[in-house]
Amino acid sequence: MADDRNQTARPSLSRQLLPAVHGLLARPLSSYYLLIASAGLLLLIGLTMVFSATSVKAYAANGNAFSAISSQAVYALLGLIAFWICQRLPALTLRALGKYVLGGAVVLLAFQNLVVMIKHIDVAHPVAKVGPVSVSLLSLAMGGVSVQPSELAKLGMVLWGADVIARKGVSLGHWKELAMPLFPVIGLLFVLVGYNDVGTMLVLLALIVGLLWAAGVRLRVFGALGVLGLTGVGLLIAAASRGAGSGAEGAENYRVARLTAFLTPLDKCDLSDVCYQLIQGRSAIFEGGWFGVGLGKGALKWGWVPEAENDFIYAIVAEELGVVGCSVVLALFSVLAFTGFRIARRSADPFRRLAAAAITTWLVAQAVINMGGVVGLLPITGLPLPFISAGGSALIVAMAAIGMLASFARAEPDAARALNARPTPRWVRLVWAPLPPVPPPRRPGQPREAPVSAGKDRR
């Protein structure tokens, strides 16, 4: 009887209403094309909005409205090169690179924090010189080239963490396997990153949670990690009153003010200080309405919205493109999230599965924190909106991460078989990407998609 019921079971409602969508998603390379389309459109929107948000100020400053967008276009080109390189690298190479990327990030972060402490870098004195290197709270610059070590830390944690967890396998359920070397490195990164940038530390925490969740770690580990993470955030916030990070000893704790401003009623908030950015961002959203005022026509970006091209660019999207434009951005990030987790679910290799889940969690969590802060649902943390905000290191590293996801999508079992069944010409493989290795044929009864969890249960 059970077999008869299964044979006569009706297809799901989504399959009845959207057969064409299910047909497209069933194609072997659908994950790859969805990823390329969503990330490419977000990058295009970002370049457009950076130009719209900076053209007026750039023209007033130096008579060249294209100065800011020219720099962003160069970063986008470098990001595309990073994408191209990363989608060509095999998993073994990525695993080998992880410890070097993470080690380099730790060294740069330690040097940056040391200079910040010695030189007393803060809002009043934002930059200090150490030989040819210019050090600020978030970046290092030398010879016109600027890099944010915290962005490299995210990428290094993805590669190194996925490699370590994939090697441990099912033994990861034991505390001693987590204790060495994973937790000490995580704690070190939290301190080095969070000393100056609590927002990036929260994204790093989300990335690690996604990595451990994809590995099937037991729920009690997440409870302990959450307690330790919240304790660390609290200590770093409290340390700002004693001069840690960009704080000044004896001054008002700016981290507490920024993290609690969104909970304070507007009539009781200091509109000339911590609430100014929040108020102007909401005004921009209100002015946009449903369809926006049009590209380049927004007035609130003319110096009235602080950091309009960076962490508050979503407010400019709302002002100039309205609710419709914001919905398009949300939809593209939703497609990116769906595709990234789909790649993780369908990857047969544990390293690819874990890295794909971590990258997707990182990009989506950062987007949610940024957009939530702009609309007033979350604290303002100063995080950029991936692919859309102006910036160099963040865009290049995000595009490199998308390149890795593209490589993992091509290595899905069905995609790899399809690509090898009808191989592209040799010159295309040399210019674009080599063929992925052919996985072994599925055994009868073997599921099409590899399970995400590597553990036995989550209790």
Automatic annotation (TrEMBL):
The lineage of its organism: Bacteria, Bacillati, Actinomycetota, Actinomycetes, Micromonosporales. Belongs to the SEDS family. FtsW subfamily. It comes from the Bacteria. It is a multi-pass membrane protein. InterPro entries: Cell_cycle_FtsW-rel_CS (IPR018365), FtsW/RodA (IPR001182). The keyword Glycosyltransferase applies. GO terms for biological process: cell division; peptidoglycan biosynthetic process; regulation of cell shape. It catalyses: [GlcNAc-(1->4)-Mur2Ac(oyl-L-Ala-gamma-D-Glu-L-Lys-D-Ala-D-Ala)](n)-di-trans,octa-cis-undecaprenyl diphosphate + beta-D-GlcNAc-(1->4)-Mur2Ac(oyl-L-Ala-gamma-D-Glu-L-Lys-D-Ala-D-Ala)-di-trans,octa-cis-undecaprenyl diphosphate = [GlcNAc-(1->4)-Mur2Ac(oyl-L-Ala-gamma-D-Glu-L-Lys-D-Ala-D-Ala)](n+1)-di-trans,octa-cis-undecaprenyl diphosphate + di-trans,octa-cis-undecaprenyl diphosphate + H(+). Pfam families: FTSW_RODA_SPOVE (PF01098). Peptidoglycan polymerase that is essential for cell division. Keywords: Cell shape, Glycosyltransferase, Membrane, Peptidoglycan synthesis, Transferase, Transmembrane, Transmembrane helix. It is an enzyme of class 2 (transferase). Its EC number is 2.4.99.28. GO terms for molecular function: lipid-linked peptidoglycan transporter activity; peptidoglycan glycosyltransferase activity. It is found in: Membrane. Residues 436-459 are annotated as: Disordered. This is Probable peptidoglycan glycosyltransferase FtsW. PROSITE patterns: FTSW_RODA_SPOVE (PS00428). Its main location: membrane. Pathway: Cell wall biogenesis; peptidoglycan biosynthesis. GO terms for cellular component: cell division site; plasma membrane. The keyword Nucleotidyltransferase does not apply. It comes from Actinoplanes cyaneus. The chain crosses the membrane at residues 32-53, 65-85, 97-118, 185-214, 221-240, 321-344, 356-381, 387-409.
